[in-house]
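Running this now, will post back.
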Amino acid sequence: MTDKELLQRGMRCLIDNLGIIEAEKFIALFTQEQIPDYTEWQRDYFDSMTAEEFHASLQEFMRNHPDDKNFTKERA
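Update: finished.
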């Protein structure tokens, strides 16, 4: 996937799930460095989930994205 394609898919994902206004706010948080370390933020987010919550979230994602060729059950 090219960088351009990744940006387009990412924006589409944000807009589809948050709406255009909240997607823009989300991006602004990163560009304004209100979340200075994305890796640390992501680690904190996932560390707060139980294994069961993570698994349920993963299953929901797979149900909602059945045609996603970049994510298959074999990788889960």
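The chain has four helices and no strands. More later if anyone needs it.
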